């Protein structure tokens, strides 16, 4: 059996990649990284470094043009600032709508793209790193269990029952993901999560806050902050 992993170079997708490699062997795992027009290339750089570490096949796609009409604050063409506060505080201002760093239907697009490639590469499983902290409060609705189940059914039916989605963390917190990754000796020092593209993580954007808390709950300091 072969698996394709949606791979951004962050904590969640790198842990998903490690799980797939542990289960199927590196020769049966393909990592798919997708650029969506983000403001920096740190994610892609991290992804390349992690691929060098694990030595798996790596496919890279640029889907920037699809998001050309979005004002998502993560995108290079957007004039909106990236919020530097917790997702909870951001959601208090959105009246139940997704936060400004939500890239419209990104996971739906990425999974559909991955499905086409997976079928062409004889994969039967797609892994991705959605988890409950991102889905909480509708911050990122395309990380929810409901979304995952719907996409899984659509891809399973649309592929003629050849392909399934596996989101191993969809009911887990980020701290639980890190716990699994530490057991698998994931090279978290190579990963990148920050929405900013500086030499060091900003420490204050939503994803930085979640990442730091996840490591602290496991009794360690984020390796990117401890250097």
Separation, N- and C-terminal Cα atoms: 39 Å
Strands across the major sheet, in which order?
Answer: 3-2-1-4-5
What share of the residues lie within helices?
A: 25-40%
Q: Order of SSEs, N→C?
A: EHEHEHHEHHEHH
Structural class: alpha/beta
Outline the biggest β-sheet.
5 strands, parallel
> Strand content of the residues, in percent?
5-15%
Low-confidence stretches: none
Q: What does the average pLDDT come to? A: 96
Q: Based on DSSP secondary structure assignment, what is the total number of beta strands?
A: 5
How would you sum up this structure, described in words?
With 227 residues, this protein is of the alpha/beta class. The protein is built from eight helices and five strands; from the N terminus they run βαβαβααβααβαα. The chain has helices spanning 11-24, 42-54, 87-94, 106-120, 132-135, 145-158, 174-183, 206-217, and strands at residues 3-6, 29-35, 57-62, 125-127, 164-166. It is globular, with a radius of gyration of 17 Å. The termini are far apart. The relative contact order is 0.18. The mean pLDDT is 96.
């Amino acid at each position: 059996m072969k698996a394709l992993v949606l791979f951004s170079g962050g904590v969640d997708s790198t842990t998903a990649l490690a799980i797939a490699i542990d289960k199927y062997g590196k020769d049966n795992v393909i990592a798919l990284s997708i650029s969506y027009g983000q403001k920096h290339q740190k994610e892609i750089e991290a992804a390349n470094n992690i691929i060098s570490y694990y030595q798996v096949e790596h496919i890279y796609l640029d889907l920037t043009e699809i998001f050309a009409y979005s004002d998502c604050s993560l995108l290079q063409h957007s004039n909106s600032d990236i919020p530097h506060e917790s997702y909870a505080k951001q959601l208090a201002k959105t009246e139940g709508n997704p936060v400004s760093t939500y890239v419209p239907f990104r996971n739906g697009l990425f999974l559909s793209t991955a499905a086409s490639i997976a079928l062409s590469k004889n994969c039967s499983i797609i892994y991705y790193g959605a988890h409950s902290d991102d889905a909480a409060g509708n911050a990122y609705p395309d990380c929810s269990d409901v979304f995952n189940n719907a996409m899984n059914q659509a891809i399973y039916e649309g592929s003629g029952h050849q392909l399934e989605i596996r989101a191993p963390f969809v009911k887990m917190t980020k701290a639980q993901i890190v716990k699994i990754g530490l057991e698998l000796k994931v090279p978290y020092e190579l990963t990148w999560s920050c929405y900013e593209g500086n030499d060091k993580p900003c420490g204050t954007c939503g994803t930085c806050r979640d990442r730091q808390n996840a490591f602290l709950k496991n009794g360690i300091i984020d390796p990117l902050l401890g250097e």
